[in-house]
Structure formats: C-alpha cells, structure tokens
Amino acid sequence: MDIRHLQYFLEVARSRSFTKAAQQLFITQPTISKTIKSLEEELGVTLFARVGKRVELTDAGIVIEEQAQQIVKSFQNLSSELGDLMNIKKGHIRIGLPPMVGSSFFPMVIGEFHKAYPEVTIQLFEDGAKKVEVDVASGALDIGVVVLPTDEGIFGCYSFVDEILKLIVHPTHPLAGREEVALHELAQDSFVLFREDFTLHDRIIAECVSAGFQPHVVYESSQWDLISEMVAAKLGVALLPETICREMDPDRVRVIRLMEPSIPWQLGMIWRKDRYLSFAAREWIAFTQRLLRQNRRPS
C-alpha cells in the first residue's frame, strides 16, 4: 500500500463511481479497478459494494475512509511543510556568538536575513568563542562564530573579519602619547582581560609570555564595554580588536597600535562538516557570507 492507493480509494468513495474517479484522476478505469482490488486483497476486506450503476462503501470501507482521509491529509501537510523548508519559508537556526561580536556585526545581518526569510526563527546563544566551538562540535548549536584558526578537519568555515588587536590605556598612562607600543613594554602593567572561555584570554597571555613576561591580570570580564570602562578608571590596560576600538571615547581612553608582535584577530563562521544542516542553516551560511564579505572592512 502506498499513498497513491489511498488517494484513488478516496476519489472512488467521493464520486461513488470507478469511471468518474478515473476521469478525475486522469487514469484509466482498469488502473483504478486494479488498484482498489489490490488494496482489498492487502487489507482482507471488501471496500465497495455495487448498487446499480453506483458503488457504495461497505462498513469496512467507511472505517478505511476515515483513516485514509487523515493519512492523506497528513501526507499533504508533510509535503507542504517540506516544501516550505526547501524553499526556506520556515526553519529554526541555533547560532552561537561571542558577546562583542554580536553587538558589532550581527544586528544588521540578522535584520537583513529576517527581511528575506521572515518565517525562519533564529535563537542566539552568547558565549565565549571557546564554548561556542565546543557547542557546535557537540551539536548543541548549528552554527557559531569563533576566533580562527579552528580545526578544519571537523568544521566547515569562512572568515569574515581579519584585524589586529590594539592597546587601550588611560589618557594619563605614560604610553598614552605614543603611536606604537611593543608588547614587552607592558611588562609592569596590570591587564584587564576577557574571561577564560574567550579565545583572546589565552592568546594574549601566550603572546605576553613569548614577549618575556607573565601578565598581571587584575580583572576579567565577558563585556568589552566594561573592560574599556575599567581602563578608563585606571585599573589596567587592555588589548581589544580594532572593530571594538572604533567605539572608544578618545577623551576616556587612548587607542595605540600594538607592535612586536602584532596580534591577529580573525573571526570565522563555523559548522560541523559531518552533520546534517537544515535548508535554513545552509541559506544562513550562504546569505551571511555574501553580506559580511560585502561589508568587510580593510584592516
């Protein structure tokens, strides 16, 4: 039995005629008669009784009609839902974003995507890049934004930001008047960093160690604006991405180019290579890749 058998059966039940049913379905009468006979043999019951030139449902036929209507309706709904998904009319996407990335890049992106696909819902999870990567790997998230590089054996990805970190200090800091500062010159300073679940936390510490000193970390936060406020309150210095530094008030903090070494900050969108991605998630990747690259700022 397949859905076509039930559709043929329902048309005969509706029209009370094999001939009229065949005409409505654009098939031959022998075809529809053979289908009904096959269905009766499979179910072990008689579905129709002839009354003159018409056919009437038997008691078994009445039971089958009720169930067949529900099955065909469910199948039609299923086909419609799948059509909506395949045409990106509906869907749900779980996306992980580090907090500083979400406010800087994604309100506009999400707004444009919503205009194009208003019935696709997006659920955002704000966490550090390290946790986002773990959650994409486990399947808790469909897509995530992380600091590159990442494991390309596990993840598909594309890059949309390629910048460097800059130093921010209080306007009264001894280095505030400089255009460039080498990292080793900060050996005696206190640092305000992102929390440990942020990739930049480990990267900054590793770069400081390579420059010959262990940084003295006085505060950690998940919010870049709080970090900048701590610098403005003379609690320490911080290293933040160029995009974030563009938001700084020059009367409260000074932004200085960091040299020897310059520390890269490259963002990428990632997803599991070996896991099924919904039509909506695949369209999000393609849509945002086009949009973010169009709006990509040169470093």
How would you describe this structure to a colleague?
By secondary structure, the chain is an alpha/beta fold. It folds into 3 domains: 3-86, Orthogonal Bundle (Arc Repressor Mutant, subunit A); 91-160 and 266-294, Periplasmic binding protein-like II (D-Maltodextrin-Binding Protein, domain 2, 3-Layer(aba) Sandwich), CATH 3.40.190; 162-264, D-Maltodextrin-Binding Protein, domain 2 (3-Layer(aba) Sandwich), CATH 3.40.190.290. It is 44% helix and 25% strand. The protein contains 10 helices and 12 strands. It has helices spanning 3-15, 18-25, 29-43, 59-86, 99-116, 129-138, 199-210, 224-232, 242-245, 279-294, and strands at 48-51, 54-57, 91-97, 120-126, 143-148, 155-169, 180-182, 190-194, 216-221, 238-241, 254-259, 264-272. Strands 3, 4, 5, 6, 7, 10, 11 and 12 form an 8-stranded mixed β-sheet that branches. Strands 1-2 form a two-stranded antiparallel sheet. The longest helix has 28 residues, at 59-86. The protein is rod-shaped. It starts with a helix and ends in a 5-residue tail after the last helix.
What's the helical proportion of residues? 40-55%
Largest beta-sheet characterization = 8 strands, mixed
Tell me the structural class: alpha/beta
Order of helices and strands: HHHEEHEHEHEEEEHEHEHEEH
CATH architecture of the largest domain: 3-Layer(aba) Sandwich
Structure summary:
The chain is built from 10 helices and 12 strands. α2 crosses α3. The radius of gyration is 32 Å and the shape is rod-shaped.
